[in-house]
Amino acid sequence: MKVLRYIPLLIFAACGPQLPEVAPEVITEKTLHDTDDPAIWVNPKDAAQSIVFGTDKDTNGAIYAFDLDGKIIEDKTIRNVKRPNNVDLEYGFALNDSTQTDIIVFTEREEKRIRMFSVPDMQPLDNGGFPVFTDATGEEQLPMGVALYKKPQTGDIYAIVGRKTGPTEGYLYQYQLQSDATGISAKLVRKFGGFSGKKEIEAIAVDNEKGFVYYSDEGHGIRKYHADPAQGDAEISLFGSEYFKKDIEGIAIARYDDGSGYLYVSNQQRHSFVIFDRNTNAFLDELDLTTVETDGCDVVTVPMGPKFPNGLFVSMSDSQQFYFHDLAKIKPGLYPKPE
């Protein structure tokens, strides 16, 4: 893997000091085409038996399932998906008054819809998919990013969806996922979010406990809004652009029980991750996790078995693989500052 890194680091040396490399504990088996975005499901009975889902972005794409050794779990993998872009996961979706299931939701760009499957039995719950951006045309109708928000007060679950391009306001659409006697549906509840027009919006992440949604306006900054539609559509902040070489990409939020935590954001063309404080959004550190051109990432802070006793950070690399890091090894402030 080192061969992949020398040329990019030489090219971008002028963009800042070379960062210390933090090697992963696990590199997954390869997908067929183009890895993009992961989501981590924590097995409530045995965290060491958890699953990492990851998109393989192609017309003949898939949602791959990996065990914590990085091996493909074929009977949990969803194939024949037309360009799955991003994926997210949520716990405890109410199918009816007495039954709940964990779910993944992913965008299927070429079909202009989002898909929803139960976890871990991997059954479709969407009757073929929920169309999105139905009032748009062309590239404005092509979904890319998706993040799930579970409202703590009610347990309602929403899908916040981004797209290939769109207007300068109302770029994101938020859908409430609902189940009743007629089946499961996705109800559009709001359009919100600014867009610079510079490139696109793909990476979206939600902090359920704090009630915020973050997304990367590539080449412009990280935007922050309220995740609950009842809190309004005004932008809370736009930050971080000065720490990135070019594209601002994947966002993962590390949450701790005491309310602390971090935002890990991919600095794609510098092949690194910029870390911000969860509460203040202040810059904390930048780390090189040896991935190349990272799009998506995800993180959990609970123990995940002997390989990942402190939590798990997953990020994609353009080698058609995902990299797994023990979370304790990538916290800010662990390594000397480069000079």
From TrEMBL:
Residues 12-334 form the BPP domain. One of its GO terms (molecular function) is inositol hexakisphosphate 3-phosphatase activity. Pfam families: Phytase. This is 3-phytase. It comes from Sediminicola luteus.
